[in-house]
Structure formats: structure tokens, C-alpha cells
Write a structure and sequence with these properties.
The chain is an alpha+beta fold. The protein has a single domain (3-78), classed as Alpha-Beta Plaits. It is 21% helix and 28% strand. It has helices at residues 16-23, 54-64; strands spanning 3-8, 29-33, 46-51, 68-69, 72-73, 75-78. The chain has a 4-stranded antiparallel sheet. Strands 4-5 form a two-stranded antiparallel sheet. The longest helix has 11 residues, at 54-64. The chain is globular.
């Protein structure tokens, strides 16, 4: 079963292909998703990388948490499900 990782503190110049190549060193990358700002279309400085197995995801965390990419120290951990947000009244 695939495991999704959160990759934070990315340089805005980092590409999905660059992340895919980096994380492929730890195993098979199924998907890379880099959210963008709705208003500007610019990257938001984080991404989600989906690895084929839990073992590969754990290896990627060990290899790349604290790794310097684009002059920035990456934060890599297992992604958590998004918390439910209440609706705004305004």
C-alpha cells in the first residue's frame, strides 16, 4: 500500500521532476503533488510525495529529512490527513 509523505520548506524553484528524481533514490515514487496558491499560481513551498510502500517511505524520511535542497533544509514526514474545517460565517 502506498504511503504519502509531506515535504516541507521547499524552495519555490523546486520542480516536481526534481523531487521525483530525488525521492526515487529511496524507492518507487508513485506521485508528486505540489500545491499552488489559488490567487498567484505560485508554489506554496511544500509538496506531497507518494511512495509505493511504507518501507520505502520510511527510507525516504531517513534519507531526506534535514537534507539540503535548493539551499533549504527539507522537512520530511508521513503526511497526516487534513483536519475538517468549519465553515466561515462571513
Amino acid at each position: 500500500m502506498a504511503t504519502r509523505l509531506y515535504v516541507g520548506n521547499l524552495s519555490y524553484g523546486t520542480s516536481a521532476d526534481e523531487l521525483r528524481g530525488l525521492f526515487a533514490q529511496a524507492g518507487t515514487v508513485e506521485d508528486v503533488h505540489m500545491p499552488t496558491d489559488r490567487a498567484s499560481g505560485q508554489p506554496r513551498g511544500f509538496a506531497f510525495v507518494e511512495m509505493t510502500s511504507k518501507e520505502e517511505a520510511d527510507k525516504a524520511i531517513q534519507m531526506f529529512n534535514g537534507y539540503t535542497l535548493g539551499g533549504r533544509e527539507l522537512r520530511v514526514n508521513e503526511a497526516r490527513e487534513r483536519e475538517e474545517r468549519g465553515r466561515s460565517r462571513y
